[in-house]
Amino acid sequence: MQNLQRIEVDPKAATAYIEAGSTLGELYYRIQEKSNTLGFPAGVCPTVGVGGHVSGGGYGNMIRKHGLSVDHIIDATVVDAQGRILNRSTMGDDLFWAIRGGGGASFGVVVSYTVNLVPVPEIVTVFNIQRYLKDNATELVHKWQFVMQDIDHNLFIRLLLQPVNDPQIKGKSTGRVTFMALYLGDSNTLVTLLGGKFPELGLKKEDCKEMSWGKSTLYWANFDNNTKPEVLLNRTFTANYSKRKSDYVQTPMTVLQLQQMWNKIATLAQPGLVFNSYGGRMNEVPATDTPFPHRKGNLFKIQYSDSWHDAGQEANDKHIGLIRELHNFMTPFVSKNPRGAYFNYRDIDIGVSHNGTYQEGEVYGRKYFKGNFDRLVKVKTLVDPTNFFRNEQSIPTQK
């Protein structure tokens, strides 16, 4: 798919045609070429491929304002199991529904998407604030859960929780939370907003950086202020070894539970957690509109993250074991029946299909798609009854 890289942005219609082998970075660059008041709500990692990201229900830092990438798809090109090239009108409503969050690879080859772009202001604001446990990090994380439920939809705040070395006491470990924000507006308005809703964070004007939305895609990808936007066209990703897992939180964690979590993170000393705030637009789109079901009722999504450089089975077993232990520890605090998971953080720990059976597929399918799994199975059975398009976590055909 990597050779399918054509992107056509139409600023007048506020749409983009995107071939599936394009990267998010390339998409953001092409949007910036044409407009400084249009954007697209997708992920912050520029080397991620558009086809997989979008078809799996990709999200980014405009999730509270504009929802998911799949909420903005208006057409697609798909090659089905019979080799037919289909668009939205010829594939039908069911298949068009399925490839907007159910993963394209179960149903055919998604060649391109056409999407509506979203309006963004000429100036957006970002900040990155770190607080250690001694700085009341636990209480701040606790308050953040409640603040983000109904605050201005233009604001997204991600938390990165990590075990780190104490900056003041050599050899001592502690915990640190990083508040990473995108606000679709100016810094004065943001400081006033958080001064009223979240004064404990202590946000000051000097903590904020104002820039265009296009520049903010570079900021969120950890590039410095002097980086040229052409870096977004770089498709080279220096790979290391990594494992990701996910969860959804529907009931706020108590201060005691957060303290227990910090203790566990410190004990394991390696995996970190990312809390992604929900609410806003995610509370407004019905769970059945797309295959992605984790909408209203979720306070935030957790990403469990561990990366390492040492090759070999011993290192793999060690690090994967650590992230599994942290995931198991969090069981009482997250969604249940089923315990939800995010499809684009493919996690074979939650189930694998060896023979393509419904019974195998249901194990992971319910966690990724909840009640929408049943409709995905019906679509799969209709468009690919011989299960030509299959992988270790694909949608199965009916029993």
From TrEMBL:
It comes from the Eukaryota. The keyword Glycoprotein applies. The lineage of its organism: Eukaryota, Viridiplantae, Streptophyta, Embryophyta, Tracheophyta. The keyword Phosphoprotein does not apply. This is FAD-binding PCMH-type domain-containing protein. Pfam families: BBE, FAD_binding_4. Keywords: FAD, Flavoprotein, Glycoprotein, Signal. Residues 1-120 form the FAD-binding PCMH-type domain. GO terms for molecular function: FAD binding; oxidoreductase activity. Belongs to the oxygen-dependent FAD-linked oxidoreductase family. Gene3D superfamilies: 3.30.465.10, 3.40.462.20.
